[in-house]
Amino acid sequence: QKEVEQNSGPLSVPEGAIASLNCTYSDRGSQSFFWYRQYSGKSPELIMFIYSNGDKEDGRFTAQLNKASQYVSLLIRDSQPSDSATYLCAVNESNTGKLIFGQGTTLQVKP
Amino acid sequence: GAVVSQHPSWVICKSGTSVKIECRSLDFQATTMFWYRQFPKQSLMLMATSNEGSKATYEQGVEKDKFLINHASLTLSTLTVTSAHPEDSSFYICSARDPRGLATTYEQYFGPGTRLTVT
Fold first, then answer.
1. What is the per-residue pLDDT across A71-92, written as a single tens digit (0 to 9) for each?
2. Which of B104, B109, B113 comes nearest A51 by C-beta?
3. A-B Cβ pairs (cutoff 8 Å, strict)
């Protein structure tokens, strides 16, 4: 059973701080890794994807990938209350291309 | 990013009736679409993969005769919940794979979801 693991949280950070969200996966053949943001009652929204080891930055968001450790993370700099949501880590399944989702981490940014 | 629409956004139906949900890719052609279900406080559960021009591939435990999927064109997939029961009440979300990205990245973009309530 291929798995994606996330700490369900909630992760609480003060406004302006850096929020660090982590994800581990079991499928060593996975090539692509995604972070989705889901507000309560809404569908997931793609924030970033990464497929090479290292860091990928987009505005306040940085995705980090370490394939040797099977670890993906998302950093949110200068966190805002509007960043409060559930963040889903998704990993492509190597033999099918389907996405395997983690349970999500709830982030709370307090003013 | 790519735009995916879903219709209706919410629906209430009586037990025993059927409900059809549409998923459209608006600015790209999607050969592959996916249907998910999400219960409150839970993560997404993949129900089936919808391929244009061929039969859908259902995940283990999903009844294909109850959840009928049709992907008749490159921009439209439909999910029909047949003989709906209260336990089918859930948030149904479709996604479409954007073929314009790299072949290995498999980005999926989600529709806004359909909230189904069966009374």
1. 999 999 999 999 999 999 999 9
2. B104
3. 51
